[in-house]
Design a protein that fits this description.
0% strand; single chain; mainly alpha
């Protein structure tokens, strides 16, 4: 995979994660802007993505063979994904469908 394609994939993954965190924060914490905790989580997720050596092969962090998140942050991002995942279809349908298609393709590779 070309470097530009890997970078584009990285940016798209970061955008999806950030939108999911924004949705979670807006619905759970009630503000238009990210609260301090959610902002820290978004920054952490972005940093992890920036340093990911497996970006070329993986689809999403959940499908990665190496989990580089600290246990506390991993639980926080899981809570965000569990909450925001189903709601993304209403708020960001394009992202949600793209994520679903990528997840199905990844599962088929490993079956």
């Amino acid at each position: 995979m070309r470097a530009e394609a890997v970078e584009k994939k990285r940016q798209k993954e970061q955008r999806v994660a950030e939108e999911m965190i924004r949705l979670y924060c807006r619905k759970k914490h009630g503000g238009r802007k990210l609260c301090a905790d959610c902002s820290a989580l978004a920054d952490y997720a972005r940093q992890r993505s920036e340093k990911c050596p497996f970006m070329e092969q993986k689809t999403f962090c959940a499908n990665c063979r190496v989990h580089c998140y600290k246990p506390e942050m991993r639980e926080r991002i899981r809570a965000v994904m569990r909450f925001s995942g189903p709601r993304m279809l209403l708020y960001h349908p394009g992202m949600a469908v793209w994520h679903l298609v990528c997840t199905i393709k990844e599962r088929r590779k490993h079956d």
